[in-house]
Amino acid sequence: MKTATEFDTIAAISTPPGEGAISIVRLSGEEAVQCAQKIFAGQNLQLVSSHTINYGHIVDPESRQEVDEVMVSVMRAPKTFTREDVVEINCHGGIVATNRILQLVLSNGARLAEPGEFTKRAFLHGRIDLSQAEAVMDLIRAKTDRSMKVALNQLDGNLSHLIKNLRQDILGVLAQVEVNIDYPEYDDVEEMTTRLLKEKALEVRQRIKQLLSTAKQGKVLREGLATAIVGRPNVGKSSLLNHLLHEDKAIVTDVAGTTRDVIEEYVNVRGVPLKLVDTAGIRETVDKVEKIGVARSKHAIEQADLVMLVLNGSEPLTNEDRQLLKLTATKKRIVLLNKMDLTRGIEVAQLKELLQPDEEILTTSVLKNQGLEQLEARIAELFFGGIENSQTTVMVTNARHIALLNQAEKALTSVLQGISAKMPVDLIQIDMTNCWDLLGEITGDSYQDELLNQLFSQFCLGK
Ligand SMILES: Nc1nc2c(c(=O)[nH]1)N(C=O)[C@@H](CNc1ccc(C(=O)N[C@@H](CCC(=O)O)C(=O)O)cc1)CN2
Ligand SMILES: Nc1nc2c(ncn2[C@@H]2O[C@H](COP(=O)(O)OP(=O)(O)OP(=O)(O)O)[C@@H](O)[C@H]2O)c(=O)[nH]1
Ligand SMILES: [Mg+2]
Prior knowledge:
This protein is an alpha/beta fold. The protein has 3 domains: about 5-130, Gyrase A, domain 2 (2-Layer Sandwich), CATH 3.30.1360; about 135-215 and about 395-445, tRNA modification GTPase MnmE domain 2 (Four Helix Bundle (Hemerythrin (Met), subunit A), Up-down Bundle), CATH 1.20.120.430; about 225-385, P-loop containing nucleotide triphosphate hydrolases (Rossmann fold, 3-Layer(aba) Sandwich). The chain is about 45% helix and about 15% strand. The protein has 15 helices and 13 strands. A hairpin with an 8-residue loop joins strand 1 and strand 2. Helix 6 (about 160-180) runs antiparallel to helix 7. The radius of gyration is 30 Å and the shape is flat. It starts with 9 loop residues before the first strand and ends in a 7-residue tail after the last helix. The mean pLDDT is about 90. Guanosine-5'-triphosphate binds near residues 259, 338 and 342.
């Protein structure tokens, strides 16, 4: 068998598997048009203008059997997704027709594309850089409008521009340092040179730190804000979870201690991705199973980005409530007075003394569906209040980028340490150059084949 190369004409089904209105079999490479022409009855695809879509039929050249009625797009290099000749066969979306067309293409000069190979070619041919290629995948996987915007922003090259500018700056300084060393014009050239390096290292490190701070927000966008619903037994925690989920996921009864284990669910509240964790009510308990649940609730509080502390508004504050208030005091939290449909039994003034001075209390009745709009608004406010507008700011969301930025930051710290320790300039230069290299790995200005293989293998087939 011939080994696969980056020069082969590749083909894959680019639409999701299964039944659909239309499916696309995509080809890319030098022989894409010729290959499609062999199985196409209609216009001569080798003669049609580029970027046209052409009606016709797919015919098996061996059996002369008609396979499907199709529309075929012909897009010639270089203005294409891969910068190679691209042909897209738009067929009827059945599994059989689509697979047969793929088989025909494969027996007429194309080989099956590896996952992500189309996008890999777009990268190898310089249409997009590595961070943009990674954004393509993020875009497909995006679960909310917000994370979609962040990915699109990265696909548009905004992170790339930022990184490229930083690298340009570093390169400028490195060049200046070379000149100073080779042609010392002044006596204090040594001092001038280190000052230059120091200024630039500080400036770039500041910008890297700023980028890294967006990573935290990005993690929330991707993974959801870990939100623990806590409170003593029977206050309505599971009812609240069910309300936010719009389904009866957790068992709700009037028996205290109903929830025994931690329940985790993902919801989207006004564009905020929440990873909701319903916990067992916390109280001093003798029941062994419940005890374990309580320990897990405490753990859930520790892990949470946000805590919703539910109190029963119809009863006086208990010791458990006070303990929970204490346990969650340092957390970002929303305090809910639930069961407001019943007569009020809680002393609000007393409760207020246990809260932060500016902390609001939300009154709700999950049973009567009251006060829950305000809760949703509060969640959105807490979340977006801490997040900069991602349409204008670049956000770093990718683990590989974060790791490289952290390393680049360390390299700059070494530069600064070297300067304070009065190390020779050429040693300091090494750290600075290292930083330049590390940043280059984000955009793929320098990369190893192994990385490419690993990255693109995570893509969908046909992408
Ligand atoms: N049918 C179809 N739809 C698709 C894609 C595709 O490949 N085929 N895409 C793929 O995933 C996405 C669109 N992305 C694309 C990005 C660049 C180019 C492209 O041809 N770029 C050229 C020329 C641009 C121009 O004409 O101005 C270039 O950048 O040189 C095409 C598609 C989503 N929709
Ligand atoms: N009157 C009133 N009853 C409510 C309200 N919210 C929940 N309940 C009721 O309170 C009882 C307990 O609700 P759950 O949601 O199971 O409470 P929980 O906090 O999950 O309880 P545990 O799992 O035992 O810790 C159920 O009978 C609910 O219908 C409310 O706003 N008003
Ligand atoms: Mg419960």
